[in-house]
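Re: weekly structure request thread

Next one in the queue (164 aa):
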Amino acid sequence: MNKLIVIILMLCTGQLIAQGDERKAVNELINTWHKAASEADFETYFGILADDGVFIGTDASENWQNDDFRAFSKPYFDRGKAWSFTTIERNIYINESANFAWFDELLDTRMEICRGSGVLSKEDGKWRIKHYVLSITIPNEDVDVVSAIKKEKDSLFMLNKKLR
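Done, posted below.
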């Protein structure tokens, strides 16, 4: 019975260590991705985003599939600096098979504090970002003011969506 308990503990410990290693790898990858944007390293940035990856920006119209996001972003990268996101905090979660991860993060940006969240998958032994969402954070007590500011543009956006 003692041997069985030891074996179970060893297996659990091994899985926890593996999960910790994967979290570290995912954390480093996201850091590299943000750094690539701030250094205008187009190839590294888009090498981390999966071929079928999606980037959701802060504007309601920004649902970028990889190819469109590349085209949109290229001029920013060509100027020598795309955007800079500095991580304030990040939470990373990994499934038991260690082939799927998701995260959320608070970021210091030119738009002040933003929240990012994303999904990664492991493809051929390499983590890739499949989906990323960037949101501007709004203090709860300021929601009514911000909603009033964006009401007209949101109405035009909705009207345009209905006309399609």
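The radius of gyration is 20 Å. Residues 2-38 form the longest helix (37 residues).
Next request, please.
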